[in-house]
Design brief:
Blueprint: H1 3-23, H2 25-36, H3 42-49, H4 54-88, H5 92-105, H6 110-130, H7 140-165, H8 169-176, H9 181-210, H10 213-217, H11 223-234, H12 237-262, H13 284-312, H14 315-324, H15 326-354, H16 359-371, H17 374-385, H18 398-421, H19 425-433, H20 438-466, H21 472-475, H22 483-491, H23 497-529
Length: 530
């Protein structure tokens, strides 16, 4: 092996180590330190490792909520996606814009959806009481399932819309010559769309499995909340780790089962000039189902805005709520912005050195990060930094930033890696032909080509970090508070105009981020067209 090849392999290996540190080092070190001195008998270990009794019921609650939410999201996304694709098939770039906006709608914190539906049924119950009818008790499993489905629907829909965007129009035109539009949808489009449907469903299942803020607000106990509660009561990391094994095992099996389908996902987007020429009109009964699902999505998008505006009372009250929480908002923005910048910089280093040779390792580490519950991530960070070597970091503002990077950093490098795979390699080869230096190739060509992916990754981590709850609850330094934790704590004391104002503030941030991403994409496209 040449010296250059050896150095290149060494750098690639270092990038993989950085990826491992970001994705799995806290939990890995937690496993080593916990089992070295756990002080538990084998009987106690087996009881924690295998759910039984009450924990088995909580585990089944989590599984049932995850499966039903994922199934409903996939079904709704299939109907909604087919309707939007049908309208935009001659203007395919609009499909991309819609998918981007929907993606940013999916990043809103789940507890905002909980508050929205609680406030909505509170308004409905007031009207029913005035009419002499009994109100709804929006609590329990059904309320938790419905809210979770509405919360994760944009995530699944954005994945499905991108799947529609990748379908070759020539295949649709050829199929329409011998079959009706509905049969083409069922026999041709849906099999091509299956990887995207499965990817969206798997993501919804994994996120729902680890989510405890929605069920807890509707008085439903889940396995993810049990992990957090057990650690808060016993302060034993090994117990939290063992309790998390069933969730991580189910998550790992989900990803392993979906991997064969993920490999078939097309990453080639058809050229803008290739469109379906034949009309694509579904039967009336099918269009009614599409309209129904589209109405649900419109409710999901608009209801938080309308309910929060109504509950907040006036914009003066919203402004007052925001000003009263200025310290929490400032700290949340600092944590989110710092976490997104660190995540993007690490993602650029990791993707640049691993995208060609270590792609499988990168996907494996991302899969690991998706399987780790948020509370276990926080416990792992505590165990990693609560020692004499890192005492200057433990208990500082570094901890919530580390929680954001550890939880959402892998998403940043996957977004950038996906954008990197679509780059035109001929531009880089042309620069090498003219003997341009490697630094100039990176700064003047690669970085500019990656800029949309960098912006998307940064905004994604920023919005997710603002709503991060599970890990931040454990690692938050004394005297500090984030906006998401303040809202979550206030929600347990009932709905109020101050909570509505703070939730509305976060919703507006998500809308602004989505519209800004679309504006940047439109501006970049016009620049290339000119």
């Amino acid at each position: 092996m040449s010296r250059a090849g050896f150095i290149n392999n060494l750098v690639c290996g270092a990038a993989v180590v950085v990826a491992f540190v970001v994705a799995a080092s806290p939990v890995t070190l937690l496993a080593f330190t916990s089992f070295a001195d756990h002080g538990l008998t084998w009987t106690a270990l087996s009881q924690l490792l295998l759910p039984n009794g009450r924990r088995l019921a909580l585990f089944m609650n989590s599984i049932s909520l995850g499966l039903t939410s994922a199934g409903a999201c996939v079904l709704f996304s299939w109907f909604i996606g087919s309707f939007i694709w049908q309208l935009t098939r001659k203007f395919t770039m609009f499909l991309t814009y819609i998918a981007i906006f929907v993606w940013f709608m999916a990043l809103l914190p789940p507890f905002i959806h909980s508050y929205t539906w609680i406030a909505f049924f509170s308004i409905v119950n007031r009207f029913l009481a005035l009419s002499g009818f009994q109100g709804f008790h929006f609590l329990g499993m059904i309320a938790s399932w419905w809210t979770g489905t509405m919360a994760w629907l944009p995530l699944c829909l954005s994945t499905v819309l991108l799947g529609f965007r990748c379908i070759d129009p020539d295949l649709i035109d050829a199929a329409q010559l011998i079959a009706s539009p509905l049969r083409v949808l069922l026999k041709v489009i849906t099999p091509l769309l299956a990887p995207s449907l499965l990817a969206g469903g798997a993501l919804v299942f994994l996120l729902s499995l680890q989510e405890f803020s929605i069920p807890s607000l509707f008085q439903v106990s889940t396995y993810a909340l049990e992990i957090f509660a057990d650690y808060s009561a016993n302060n034993q990391p090994v117990r939290a780790l063992l309790l998390s094994v069933p969730l991580m095992a189910v998550g790992g099996l989900t990803i392993l089962g979906a991997l064969p389908f993920f490999r078939n996902v097309s990453t080639t987007i058809p050229r803008m000039g290739r469109i379906q020429k034949a009309p694509f009109i579904f039967p009336r009964w099918f269009r009614v189902l599409q309209y129904g699902c589209l109405l649900l999505f419109a409710i999901q998008v608009l209801l938080p805005l309308m309910v929060l505006i109504n509950t907040a009372g006036s914009w003066e009250r919203v402004f007052g709520s925001v000003m009263n929480s200025s310290s929490e908002i400032t700290f949340s923005f600092w944590v989110s912005l710092t976490g997104s910048l660190v995540a993007v910089m690490l993602a650029l280093i990791i993707v640049h050195h691993t995208v060609n040779k270590w792609r499988s390792v990168l996907l494996f580490l991302t899969a690991i990060s998706l399987c780790i519950p948020a509370s276990l991530n926080g416990i792992g960070l505590i165990d990693l930094y609560n020692n004499s070597a890192f005492q200057f970091l433990y208990g500082s503002d570094f901890m919530p930033v580390a929680a954001s990077v550890t939880r959402f950093g892998p998403l940043a490098w996957i977004i950038i890696a996906a954008h990197h795979s679509r780059q035109d390699a001929s531009l880089v080869e042309a620069a090498r032909f003219y003997q341009v230096s490697g630094w100039q190739i990176w700064t003047r060509i690669r970085l500019r080509l990656l800029m949309p992916g960098i912006i998307a990754a940064g905004m994604t981590v920023f919005l997710l970090a603002i709503g991060e709850l599970g890990a931040t609850l454990l690692v938050l330094p004394p005297g500090r508070n984030t906006l998401s934790i303040k809202i979550y704590n206030l929600l347990h004391y009932g709905a109020s105009d101050s909570v509505a104002g703070l939730c509305l503030f976060i919703v507006l941030i998500g809308w602004i981020a989505g519209l800004a991403a679309i504006a940047l994409l439109v501006k970049r496209r016009k620049m290339y067209d000119n």
